[in-house]
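Board notes (copied after class):
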Amino acid sequence: MIRILSILLFGSIFLMACHHSEDFFAQEVEPPIWTIDPIDSVTFDNDEGLVSIHTIANANFRGLQNLTDFLDISGSNASYCHPDVLYFPNKFNGYKYWMVFTPYFGAVGTNQNSKKFENPSIVVSNDGLDWINPPGLTNPLINAPFPKESFRENKMDPIQGFWSDVDWIFLNDRFYLYYRGSFITAQSLKSKCVLTNTNFDRLKLDAHRTIVQQTSTDGIEWSNLNIAFTSNPPFTPKNDHVLSPSFIHNGSQFLSYEIELNLGRRNFKGKDPSYVLRRTSNDGINFTGFKESKLVNFLNKPWLRENFANSPWHIQATFVDGYYFLCIAIGDVKRYTSEMLYIAYSKDGLNFKVFPKPLLKNNAYRSAIFPMGVSESLIKMGAMIGNKSGEFRYREFTLSKEKIKNSLVDCPN
């Protein structure tokens, strides 16, 4: 009897511990008392046109050259997803525009085999419309993982890990590139990593999603991987999606913004289908865990006027002249997609107002905005608008600093 009671007691403690491990929250931020409405929506100065990326999408595993796994994605074969653009007015290595993206949608498609094409790729341009591989670099930056380097997401899909969700920063003459690995074994990631105790410590267990970092001083030669964080605790509730992480530096520290789905596991006190989470880091690799990170507040959520099920699905962040901006792809996240595209702005990086009208109302996917120049009164921005058809469209717009400042006077500094 004592033995049976001991077993039952141990089992109860074990179950309580397992439940407790899921029962933790990111930090909620007390919103200010908002009294001033958001400023008018963004109006584009011009619509430059459709983008053509003259490159080959490569779904081959490392070392293989199967012709069926190469696809020209220029022109009408546009298969572009998840852009992030850096602009150098005086050119960097001969080019004003540097963009990272992944081949997906369009001619590549969205089936299970399409995942093998969704590998980080870098291209350059001098007009924002016609893009090529930077001289000396062959895309993709990293090949799709072998099936033996992957593990199964579910019983229906084949065993095939993949990369996605690219984003980057240029700071102190160095590129910091981040992207997400999904269903790739910890052992496989170790073989691609810089040999550090920190990386090995974060790869003790397989994680459904892993955010990796690479650095470069010229955009051509890239370091081995570093591990920023994974979808295992303490970084997130176990197996969270860690969707579309986006990274900036605000002059004093690195910040990352990401989408976390509210899956009803007692990790969010509200009932929104998804939340925007902000992490901080001093070095760009050691970011706060889930419990130390903070949830972003939005004064207004104009996307709810269209559908109460709408919520952020993908996100891109930028910081310019003391202001934070989020480019947010909005949709019914329970259907794992987006439809509309909005821009939000902030002075403190946590409390945002949203331009009331969307940049795009239909067919929108993860897009990017980027600073092109700042004057005493204006911020000039570029926009790489992505859609679910696999096309990018390049546009430009200008914001009034005075309007932004006056709109945010009731926000904390």
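Comment from the instructor: Residues 73 and 79 are 6 Å apart (CA to CA). The two ends are 64 Å apart (CA to CA).
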